[in-house]
Design a protein that fits this description.
Radius of gyration: 24 Å
Number of domains: 2
Shape: globular
Strand content: 35-45%
Helix content: 10-25%
Number of strands: 21
Length: about 325
């Protein structure tokens, strides 16, 4: 057991050393145009969940049924014909991805509208009901989809517009799986034009998808200055086990520091924070990365350091293997 523990610790240390890489996040927007759609209600147990006010976020047992009211509005000066239908979606590449056209999935087969088409008067609005009925034979797990409202073309134009409400539906017997995430890295950098920027690497450590939002506050700066709060500019959506970066652009005239940086992130009712002392690098210099785990030290990430980190990982594993052989020989 001691040998296995030594090797596990060695591997974890190596992974931390090369764990600085991330991808630029993207935030999905469920459509735009002359019509709008919004959720009108949410279950009582989720009244305090900001995500449940704009998306359908729920956990159901096999065989259960839920209904939700949605309001469809028009900004057109003409009567607007609207089609209603469910569409497939997924969470990947750090965003919520709605499928094109009317592509369906398992979840869309469970959805029914009380009416699939309607006509809105000029600048009018109406309420529709969507019902989701989960089969008794449904397997456990989270499904994703969108409830779409699509405006039919008016006049000679062939352009269509659609807007939608996301669905995050978890299915399984018993209680709801936990939602959780960790802030693993805090990154201070400057763009080529010299504008400061703050980033954070987030790991979805729970069992449900998360949508990141939040703010950054800077205090105890030069001369006791404070700045912010600065909102997260690029929120990200992460599936269970996923990692990604949130991006926070800052004021161009912000000084180098040092600053006391406090980052607040949330996905629904799940909130986490991290703080550290940072100094922004000069334009053209390597970003400064702070790990929020047990190492908790600042390092500059450069191409050379990246190569050293990868080499260090190999060295650590080789050291662990050598230790394993020595212990085995001594027995």
């Amino acid at each position: 057991m001691r040998i296995i523990r030594y090797l596990a610790i060695s591997a974890m240390a190596g992974l931390v050393m090369i764990g600085f890489l991330g991808l630029t996040p993207t935030w999905a927007d469920e459509g735009s145009g002359p019509i709008g759609i919004r959720l009108m209600d949410a279950p009582a147990v989720r009244r305090g969940d900001p995500r449940a006010r704009i998306h359908i976020v729920d956990h159901l047992s096999p065989g259960a049924t839920i209904s939700r009211l949605l309001q469809v509005t028009s900004t057109s000066r003409r009567p607007q014909r609207v089609q209603l239908y469910p569409g497939a979606a997924s969470v990947g590449r750090h965003r919520f991805i709605s499928a094109p056209d009317r592509l369906g999935n398992e979840l869309t087969e469970w959805v029914r509208f009380d009416r699939t088409s309607l006509t809105l008067p000029p600048r009018g609005r109406t309420t529709v009901k969507a019902t989701i009925k989960v089969p008794r034979t449904a397997w456990r797990g989270e499904r994703y989809g969108v409830l779409w409202a699509e405006a039919e073309p008016i006049g000679d134009t062939e352009e269509t517009h659609r807007v939608g409400v996301r669905i995050y539906l978890d299915v399984g017997a018993g209680g709801e799986p936990p939602t959780d995430f960790r802030i693993e890295q805090l990154i201070a950098l400057r763009s080529p034009t010299g504008r400061p920027e703050f980033r954070a690497v987030v790991h979805n450590s729970g069992q449900r998808a998360v949508d990141m939002s939040g703010t950054l506050r800077l205090t105890d700066g030069p001369g006791g200055a404070s700045a912010g709060p600065f909102p997260v500019n690029h929120g990200i959506s992460l599936p269970p086990g996923g990692r990604g970066r949130v991006v926070i652009p800052l004021a161009s005239g912000l000084g180098d520091g040092p600053w006391q940086a406090t980052l607040y992130l949330a996905s629904g009712r799940t909130q986490r924070s991290a703080d550290t002392t940072i100094t922004f690098p000069k334009a053209g210099e390597a970003p400064v990365v702070k790990l929020t785990g047990i190492l908790g030290t600042a390092v500059a990430v450069t191409p050379r350091n990246g190569a050293l980190a990868a080499g260090g990982f190999v060295i650590v594993l080789m050291s662990g293997f050598a230790l394993f052989r020595r212990l085995r020989t001594s027995r």
